[in-house]
Structure formats: structure tokens, C-alpha cells
Amino acid sequence: MPGRKPLPTQLKLVKGTARPHRISADEPKPVVATPPPPDHLEAAAAAKFTEMAGLLARHGVMTELDVGALARYVVIWRRWLEAEAEVKRRGPVVKTVGGNIIQNPFLAVANKCLAQMGQIEAEFGMTPSSRSRVRMAEPTDSRDPFEDYLNRGSKA
User: What residue spans carry the region label Disordered (predicted)?
Assistant: First the structure.
């Protein structure tokens, strides 16, 4: 589907951009949870998954629906660590068999992993700029204006 990705209603409410006529009543409302790591993750990635899932759940971001996205993140994180170790070991440039000097192929892998991790981090609100887009206003009273709007239609 072309165009912008739709934002979840909860994020629209937090940002203050929710419009009552555009909120879907059918949108799933997942519960914040700290799911266990998937079985396919190796030990270091599983430990990072558990650590990140706990942090994200404390901030109200992690749900059981996010297991796949977080699993992708920790797999890429692990790959990045391995590529960085090779860059550190061999250096950012290497000599080919023919004597030419080229960029270390592991540096390209590390850079690609950094880009992928950045995209996933932004989805979870784990970067300063992605967090800065979320604004939480202090409630002026305990009534929900959206509930008032919905109830007004039933009184007519």
C-alpha cells in the first residue's frame, strides 16, 4: 500500500493528533508484556532480547505482538558485534590477494547492520528523535474528551 504507514491510535492519542472520526474501533489493543525470547535465538541474542523486552515493557512499548521485531533487532545487533570485532581485528581497509587496498567487507556489514538497527530502534521509540515526537500533555481533568464525544451521540 503506497503512502505513509498508519500510526497506531495509542500513539496518535499520545501525540495529540487523534481525530475521533478517524479512530478505528476494530484496531487491536495489545497488552504490554515481557514475552520470552524465541527459541531460535542463540544465547547472547536471547539475553539481549530479555534485557530489551524488559526495558521496552517498562516504558509501555513491548507487547507479545512485537516479538518478531525485537528478535530481528537482536539478531542484527549480534551480527553487528561480530562484524565490528572483525573490523577491529583486521582494520577498516584490507589488502586483496592481488595487493590492492580495499574497504574491509566486514565494515560494509557493520554499517548495514547499524542502518537496520536504527530503523527498528525508531519503530520502538528507542532513539532521542523518535521519542521527541511523542508529546504527553498533562490532563486538565479526569474526563476523557473522546468518551464525551462518543456519549454525546447516544443522547440525541
Answer: 15-35, 129-156
